[in-house]
Amino acid sequence: MIYRDIMTRPLPFDVMPWGIGLSGVDVDRLPHRESVFALSNGHIGWRGLLDEGEPHGVPGSYLNGVFEEHPMPYAEGGYGYPESGQSVINVPNGQVIRLTVDDEPLDIREGTLHDHEQHLDFRAGTLERALTWTSPAGSAVRIRSTRIVSLAHRSVAAVRYEVEAVDDPITITLQSELVANEPLPEPHPDPRVQDVLETPLRSAGSFVFDSAATLVHETRNSGIGVAVSMDHLVSGATAEVRTAASDDLARTTIRARLAFGERLEVVKIVGHAWASGISAPGLRDRAEAAVADAMRDGWTGLLAAQRERLDDFWTCADVRVDGQPRLQQAVRFALFSVFQAAARAEQRSVPGKGLTGAGYAGHTFWDFEAYVLPVLTATAPDAAREALRWRHATLDHARDRARQLHLQGAAFAWRTIDGRESSGYWPASTAAFHINADIAAAVVHYVRATGDVEFERDAGLEILVETARLWQSLGCTDADGRFHIDGVTGPDEYTALYDDNVFTNLMARANLDAAADAARRHPDLARTLGVDDGEIGGWVRTAGAMHVPYDEERGVHPQAARFTELERWDFETDTPGDELLQERYPYVQLYRKQVLKQADLVLALFFCTDAFTVDEKARAFRYYEALTVRDSSLSAAIQAVVAAEVGHLGLAADYLAEAATIDLDDLHGNAEDGLHIASLGGIWTALVAGFGGMRDTADGLRFAPRLPEQLTGLAFGIRWQGRTLHLEIAPDATTYRVSAGEPMSIRHFGEPVELTSGADVTMPTPALPDPGERPTQPKGREPRPFAEALAE
Amino acid sequence: MIYRDIMTRPLPFDVMPWGIGLSGVDVDRLPHRESVFALSNGHIGWRGLLDEGEPHGVPGSYLNGVFEEHPMPYAEGGYGYPESGQSVINVPNGQVIRLTVDDEPLDIREGTLHDHEQHLDFRAGTLERALTWTSPAGSAVRIRSTRIVSLAHRSVAAVRYEVEAVDDPITITLQSELVANEPLPEPHPDPRVQDVLETPLRSAGSFVFDSAATLVHETRNSGIGVAVSMDHLVSGATAEVRTAASDDLARTTIRARLAFGERLEVVKIVGHAWASGISAPGLRDRAEAAVADAMRDGWTGLLAAQRERLDDFWTCADVRVDGQPRLQQAVRFALFSVFQAAARAEQRSVPGKGLTGAGYAGHTFWDFEAYVLPVLTATAPDAAREALRWRHATLDHARDRARQLHLQGAAFAWRTIDGRESSGYWPASTAAFHINADIAAAVVHYVRATGDVEFERDAGLEILVETARLWQSLGCTDADGRFHIDGVTGPDEYTALYDDNVFTNLMARANLDAAADAARRHPDLARTLGVDDGEIGGWVRTAGAMHVPYDEERGVHPQAARFTELERWDFETDTPGDELLQERYPYVQLYRKQVLKQADLVLALFFCTDAFTVDEKARAFRYYEALTVRDSSLSAAIQAVVAAEVGHLGLAADYLAEAATIDLDDLHGNAEDGLHIASLGGIWTALVAGFGGMRDTADGLRFAPRLPEQLTGLAFGIRWQGRTLHLEIAPDATTYRVSAGEPMSIRHFGEPVELTSGADVTMPTPALPDPGERPTQPKGREPRPFAEALAE
């Protein structure tokens, strides 16, 4: 059986410039493939399940913002611990189209699978599938399906499903379904949570009309109403169509007799609606209206609109990588994934996994603002704005949280779906106050890159003011007038509750200065927020007094006060192996030693670039390289950026290759829970900020483009205040072009360059100063060489 | 109704020199009274429930070591988090004797309660009760009951219950019961734990023979077998006796007709047995053997043996306080409670609440070795030895835990019943490694005070060696050769995960030195533990290199590195009120500011007395006084000791008064969960180490007795290497006497004094140097003045 043959080979993805292909099926790897082949518009997420529903890895159909609440269990509770948790749940699954061929259900594990192809198309925004199958009884069919999650119609996903009789005439039955409360393969480890999440939806009605059906549900605890509706366009062969629905299942049955070569085509349009406090009929109407709207456009119209949206995105966003097809594929996959995660999120959070899986319970974290927003700001600024507006909309929760913590201003949730804190381990969440400065930095960066004054006035200023207030109340001034922020956790999750974390202090300093600047720019609005000159002066004084510890003896900035004096992790004895350190060592050991899960001070070298001299950067990078085990997917891309800046281009390339393969090669073994959206964003960052050397500071936009030997060329575009700035980087020179708009100034290796619309300016690449020996990493944690990691 | 009248008055305990009396009943305060009136021998614990079972506060009948396992819930788990928790459970309750008078059940809330007296007798070791009651129908009885938990018969508790017809003839029915799986008033907040603890016992048989019955049970998860048996001696009136038993209830029904003035007397003997891996018949035999044994002694024999044991204890242990009857009562209650908690624990743990309540789930903590063992060592050294042998018996668990944490040697459980770690919040448990040094210090102190070389060879040496190994692996030596212990938590629970906690480092230093000394004293045994000269040398070097941070600028030892540089808690704004700070502020705020729950550096001033100069002590005490809120019951006694040492005798007296009333006046509002045994031990310590100035160091025993103005005299005895050393302290002089044995040397205010058996030596009290201004406490947390706290 060909099927068996396909199953035993490890199946690599096909390398394509504008998509990801896969020939054959590897049932054991379905969970991973479903994440890679997930489609989303930021509002709806459909994992890349096989149309017929089974076999499957992890069923997943999500609506951004639909979650269930559950109790948070603690062995020993404490003041301020969240009592209620939030978990993303599956909404009724509209992907399912089961097929019966002459009374035998199509299942790729039975009969003979002659071929099976999948293709995710980054420009069409579709997932295509084609297969030829002969049933155990000998009936043969060819199937082609194409699905989209519409970027144009936010509430609509659709499938075109085509069956062809390839041999003898056959009778086929399609069951196109909406399935609610599907059982999930892995129960939650906590039975109380499992109880809640097992069947989170309670029916509020099911409705049938001709070939259409709608299911309306409500979540049991969070009180969210969800309606999912479907309708069908049947063409090709003559078919008998019947629809029925019960509480958790709606089914349209399409029966036809196909002669040899004859085809049946079904287009299934699925509409979604959710809300709190809307009646079931109201929700039903919304979902059905979405379907009706898309039905009018028809399949061709949906496809055309999809491509149009993506063409618009790629025009500026595309990153061209010359000479490395797998890297080329990876960076476009990354951009596609980031765009999918946020394109139509529209004032909802963008989860760490986007809508590609239920990992991290569907929560969003600091890395969205720190890692993903820069990509969106440069390539899809409208989506960036909407995401920041979502954060702004959670300000009341953040203010409540600050008050609960006896702090001023706002303390944004470390992990959340709707803005309320849902983290269950405070040393690595509540104490990680830097999230507030990360959000503030994203605001500053967005406003600077877009000139969007309206946003700054509507939302940005308030975020800056409330976060500045937080820092002002969180730290304290010592007898020598230095401002300290003690007992907090920086980005590195293997170091918690230290004093004066340099990343946090520098980011807070920038936050305070930015709040002061913004308040001065908008004095009228600032007054309505209760800001007076005294408060602004306080922020400026605090920023100026911010203590930044420095270890004179070693000539490096400690990650936090005393950090460089801690015991160094013994990498000779305590060899990490493949497992995460945190899975083999207790926090009490990790926290009190010099060992890093991820870039922390090195992230500061990048984000707060002007706070360090070139030499300090080089020394610090070398120092922390030897201590960083990269147990976090957030690390490699940042290490790539800083490695490139300090001249270790080969090392930067290796880190880029690692970042580029984290999801496609499932390096962390958990891509089945969904893609690492922040790490995918990091691929872009490693190229643009790493080899492009882009830094966006108050002094303007700078570049220092320098290619590693593995790349013969690199080209990318960014949106900047209404313009598109395009860079074409060759080994010896970089050509800058502004597509439209006013002239603009940038710096190329520190040298001012004036760019006028339409005119190419080519600048030479200066010689690379000797960066010294390649920095070393902990034993066993050296990155794979670029060529090996990206070998085809 | 007199009953109602009694109920509305707040009822203070009667002040008695050798007991605690209570006239009347206050149903709302029953939970507190049950803890105060609890009887225990360290093996069995019976809360002071009313004989008839109801009304009750919190039913409690415990057997030391009988617990149930339950899952430990975590919102976010981590490596090394205990998966299984342990909770003490109620064993079948043998206290219950219900009475029906002319068909009306005795309930103090109904009918007329003419008088109700309870009396806990510290010398007899009994709880007596007397009441006169008229039923709603007018039948009047007088009841006298006396119960003991036998110190002589470890497995036996007994009740003598006497009913007298005080008016007309009456018919009475007594139901003497064993009740298993009694419902508890407050469900556990975690439903998974509640499920386990609701009916933890599964019947393994019930047996009846004449007036005797036995229930055998097994715990569902921990697999512990429990047998409780009872038999009865009935005298006085003629009575009809029947016994029956089912799974969870055994009942002996005694029916009699009493003429006016006639009495029925029932002596109920209850025997207990528990074990793992013993058959139900085997357990039954053990429990019934215990009953048979006690029946032979009879009630009078039981009482006599009880008094004999207590006479023996009090001979040396009594502390006489002149001029302060309430303090006198409190200190004897404290000694009685400590003795009850440990007397017959015999290689089982002594829980934080003893066996007086289910608070802290029946776990033992570091404060047993740090606070309770010194009292036992001085007053009941056999009990001290047994408790340390229990710790020794948990060494395998402690070694397993150390290995799990990737450390050498042994890491004793922070909270446990059977030696396995059961704490659910690692920053305040696993990270509090000082428990290991506290245990080691208790070993050193015990061996020094008793000269018990056999114990040192059997158990002590191994504890010292394995804890020394822990420190050696936990800390690290810096480039300057100083040894640091970073990222740990000291005694103060409002400060966690700091570097070089002074208490921890000093205690670890002593631990390392003590291990080296002991290994050199017993080289043969040390070799069998794998100790060679190199290892000993390593300990000595590490001890010598131990870093003890000192803040030169402020002239005080910081509680931990950088502590004195942290922001000071703003006591003006963040006023504590009555609530614990931890109930109103998150750890993230508490940990990173200068605010102390309890003595930490001040505990080091006491425990590591020679590591500080007199001036350093005075400055440090003053510094930390201003920061300590005493949200822990462990604090006041230690503050009393150090206040006395630095000359603030009035303040010391106030702290002593606070310690003395924590349980009797229920200052923390949680005495219903059981008594604070460590804090009770602290009352003794505040007197003996505070006003007696006793310090036990490697250089010998020292005293610096000095009375506050509130005391006209203080006398106490301690056991010292087979002798009894007695001190009689007057304001101007102290008289020392050694009761027996070899001469011994002590120091009186630094001056050597030779003491010979039987000869009084009187030494004058030197003039008190000016201690300066009385140190101040955080606003609202000043101790109540002595006179007010101990007003009668």
Could you characterize what this model shows?
Chain A is α+β, with helices and mostly antiparallel strands and 792 residues long. Among the domains of chain A are: 2-70 and 84-315, Beta-galactosidase, Chain A, domain 5 (Distorted Sandwich); 425-629, Glycosyltransferase (Alpha/alpha barrel). Helix content of chain A is 33%, strand content 25%. In chain A, α9 packs across α11 (502-521) and α11 runs parallel beside α15 (601-607). Chain A is globular. The two termini of chain A are 28 Å apart. Residues 1-10 of chain A have low confidence and may be disordered. Chains A and B meet through α14 of A and α14 of B. Chains A, B: Keywords: Glycosidase, Hydrolase. Chains A, B: Residues 24-274 form the Glycoside hydrolase family 65 N-terminal domain. Chains A, B: Residues 755-792 are annotated as: Disordered. Chains A, B: It comes from Microbacterium oleivorans. Chains A, B: One of its GO terms (biological process) is carbohydrate metabolic process.
Distance between the termini of chain A: 28 Å
CATH topology of the domain at 2-70 and 84-315 in chain A: Beta-galactosidase, Chain A, domain 5
Our estimate of the beta-strand percent of chain A is 25-35%
Give the C-level CATH assignment of the domain at 2-70 and 84-315 in chain A. Answer: Mainly Beta
Number of helices of chain A: 20
Shape designation of chain A = globular
- Give the oligomeric state of the chains in this entry, treating copies of one chain as homo and distinct chains as hetero: homodimer
- The mean pLDDT of chain A is 95
Helix % of chain A is: 25-40%
Tell me about the largest β-sheet of chain A: 10 strands, antiparallel
Question: What would you give as the CATH superfamily of the domain at 2-70 and 84-315 in chain A?
Answer: Glycoside hydrolase, family 65, N-terminal domain
Poorly predicted sequence stretches spanning 5 or more consecutive residues of chain A: 1-10
Taking all Cα atoms into account, the compactness measure Rg of chain A is: 27 Å
Largest interface: A-B, 54 and 54 residues
Secondary-structure content class of chain A: alpha+beta
Strand order of the largest sheet of chain A: 1-2-10-11-12-13-20-17-16-15
Query: What is the second-level CATH architecture of the domain at 2-70 and 84-315 in chain A?
Result: Distorted Sandwich
